[in-house]
Specification:
It is built from 21 helices and 31 strands. It has 662 residues and is α+β, with helices and mostly antiparallel strands. The chain binds guanosine-5'-triphosphate (GTP) and magnesium ion. Pfam families: Arf (PF00025), COR-A (PF16095).
């Protein structure tokens, strides 16, 4: 099963397997991404790799996805150039967004490597950048352009480009997705959709007197995809679209098309076209006409994207003369988190684009909510410190908060408190609690300012942020890891180290690097952690470090009724099997729920990824899979599998059963 499918939902995996039953074939596909600093020579490199001229290369505006095709003889490795394989991904916009400065070439290279590897989906172990052989995954070839500028070094020759091509193919062949097996009908439909894209459509301009133009098809209706799928022997496509949807999701994941189930009216066949559209909105290279519009200043200052400006910006893409896609494109931009409609009643129909607001100093923004009342109370800062944070990550978080929480109004102004990388929200109905959420380098931080001096715990806000961060990691397949830290209310966000989560729970006090004095750990965590959570965590920590723990107490309890190897621990729950089924305990030993089963498992394992429990039943030599509520999913038997004894799940999600014969 291709890695991409393995990472999709259980329904998609089942749809894939069903389709694969009617025949599969191998697919070879190489995707190359060229990243690097502005003007490094990326476009020239791509052109030369594709055996094209470089005379007319101009600077690329924003991110550029070029789907170029050439055929490579798998046996000989020779490249045959027809038209267009490769992606040139870079941007001034991106560079402006990251606002990075590098002290050394090492830091510079690390930055680009992190950028590439945080999007690697080939490895289940999300924090890893290397495979078992310590090879970078995906492989990276570092090309030094401009070497002719170094005295005594000669120009890059044609021979070296040939070596680069050989290197690309060699690296691609080592990847786990080389020779992927796909259902034949999926490959046929993929080709059909590609053919559809190259079909031309006649575009009629809305402006009077303009002649109609021919354009390749960039978008098709979902119903058109249904008809194509029907032709490609997808079963019952008109009634049952689950296989088609799984196929479209797969194609979206590998970057061939853009398809969101939530906005399913159209399918974008040419992602480059969408990049062109998005470039109209998120760019640092607007044309003068749009710049002169007063609506532009409004966007710059407030983030509000007025309708006039939307119309104007859409016109930058010639194939958008038919504004029939306007609504769909706006919905897509909402789906991508580029634009958002605030939750505030009076602003619900307005469109905001937070990433294009002019940056302002953080302290200046904070002054806008600095309540001087003596009763005002600030919580500590709750921080998620990331190993590496891609520039768009925080934007997704901010947009999600804007959708779900009312933004505060600026003092004496109707302007909403949304800024570049900062949002200030009204947390409760009465307005006595204000939430500040912001990005600072590799750190996402939040603080609650209360207008009443009460000890309130914002554990639910903390959970919301963590869930959201994990959801974004999953949805955009971003491999980043973070650590939770607390920092004192008035300290600096960046220079102050604060205290880590585990340390805060076990240590009574810590040395604050900002104030150079001892602070109470409890004072710093209590705004975000409930006492029960702290207790639970303490027991978990002890369980990790000491054999005589509360976990043992639970095991002791179960040992009286069932064999020893039937405990599975999932997060802060203990799953204990007995004669009648499974009892779920919390870490204090209290029963949370019971599942009655029709069989008595002799061993079981909890697969956290799929939330399934795998059980083996010795008498019948069966492997039974149930969901976390005890409902049957499937039963597996095999004549070769007798006297089943133990089971476990490996890192890939494979269930391994120890039995007599196999
Ligand atoms: N001397 C020298 N000049 C180069 C080399 N590669 C590219 N250039 C020149 O550098 C300039 C930028 O090249 P591009 O290929 O447009 O660079 P890019 O990284 O795509 O630039 P942006 O899209 O603006 O980020 C052009 O004027 C090229 O002619 C090289 O190896 N040696
Ligand atoms: Mg370029």
């Amino acid at each position: 099963m291709p890695e991409t499918i393995k990472n999709m939902s259980v329904y998609d995996r089942e749809a894939f397997l069903k389709a694969a039953n009617s025949g599969t074939t191998k697919r070879y596909n190489i995707r190359v991404m060229i990243v690097g600093k502005q003007s490094a020579g990326k476009t020239c490199l791509l052109r030369r790799l594709m055996n094209e001229e470089i005379d007319d290369v101009i600077s690329t505006d924003g991110i550029n996805i070029e789907r170029r095709k050439c055929h490579i003889d798998i046996k000989t490795g020779v490249w045959h150039f027809y038209k267009y394989i490769s992606e040139d991904f870079q941007s001034k916009t991106y560079e402006n967004m990251i606002e990075k400065e590098f002290d050394s070439i090492g830091e510079y290279i690390d930055f680009w490597l992190d950028n590439i590897h945080c999007y690697c989906t080939d490895d289940k172990n999300t924090s890893m950048q290397c495979n078992d052989d310590l090879d970078l995954n995906p492989p990276v070839i570092i090309v030094g352009t401009g070497i002719d500028k170094i005295p005594l070094v000669c120009y890059v020759t044609t021979v070296e480009f040939e070596e680069l091509r050989t290197d690309i193919v060699r690296n691609a062949k080592d990847l786990s997705n080389w020779e992927e097996n796909l259902p034949i009908r999926w490959i046929v439909l993929e080709k059909e959709m590609y053919r559809k894209q190259t079909e031309t459509a006649i575009l009629f301009s809305e402006a009077e007197g303009e002649t109609p133009r021919c354009e390749n098809k960039k978008v098709i209706l979902y119903t058109e995809a249904q008809s194509l799928a029907n032709e490609c022997t997808f079963p019952d496509v008109q009634k049952e679209t689950s296989e088609l949807d799984s196929f479209l999701k797969y194609e979206h994941e590998i970057g061939n098309i853009v398809f969101f189930k939530e906005v399913r009216e159209y399918i974008v066949l040419d992602p480059e076209w969408l990049v062109d559209v998005f470039r109209c909105f998120v760019s640092h290279d607007y044309n003068g006409e749009a710049l002169g519009m007063p609506e532009w200043a409004v966007l710059d200052e407030t983030g509000k994207l007025e309708d006039n400006l939307i119309e104007k910006l859409f016109k930058k893409v010639p194939s958008l003369i038919l504004t029939k896609h306007k609504q769909y494109l706006l919905e897509l931009m909402e789906e991508f988190g580029i634009i958002v409609k605030p939750k505030n009643d009076d602003f619900r129909n307005d469109i905001y684009m937070p990433c294009m607001i002019k940056p302002r100093p953080f302290q200046e923004i904070l002054r806008k909510v600095d309540v001087k009342s003596e009763y005002c109370k600030k919580s500590s800062w709750f921080c998620l410190v990331f190993n590496f944070l891609p520039p768009s990550y925080f934007n997704h978080i901010l947009v999600s908060f804007v959708k779900n929480k009312q933004l505060l109004h600026e003092k004496n102004d109707s302007k909403l408190s949304i800024y570049r990388n900062v949002g200030i929200f009204q947390l409760n109905e009465t307005g006595s609690e204000i939430l500040v959420i912001c990005l600072s380098k590799n750190l996402i931080a939040m603080q609650v300012i209360q207008l009443k001096s009460e000890n309130v715990c914002y554990s639910y806000v903390k959970n919301r942020l963590i869930n959201l961060v994990d959801l974004i990691k999953q949805r955009y397949r971003i491999n980043v890891i973070y650590e939770i830290r607390f920092k004192c209310a008035d300290g600096s966000l960046l220079d102050n180290e604060g205290i880590g989560y585990d340390e805060a729970i076990v240590k009574g006090e810590y040395r604050c690097t900002d104030h150079e004095e001892m602070h109470s750990s409890k004072v710093i965590y209590r705004s975000w952690l409930k006492e029960e959570e702290v207790e639970e965590e303490r027991s978990a920590i002890i369980a990790n470090t000491c054999p005589c723990t509360s976990a043992m107490i639970a095991i002791k309890f179960y040992v009286e009724t069932v064999p020893e190897n039937m405990v599975t621990r999932k997060k802060n729950e203990l799953y204990i099997g007995n004669k009648y089924g499974i009892v779920v305990f919390d870490m204090s030993g209290s029963v949370k729920r019971r599942m009655t089963l029709s069989f008595t498992p002799c061993d079981k394992c909890y697969d956290v990824d799929s939330q399934r429990i795998y059980c083996i039943v010795r008498e019948h030599s069966k492997l039974i899979c149930i969901d976390k509520d005890g409902n049957d999913i499937f039963t597996f038997t095999n004549p070769n599998m007798t006297k089943v004894k133990d089971l476990t799940i490996d890192n890939e999600g494979n269930v391994v059963v120890l039995c007599t014969k196999g």
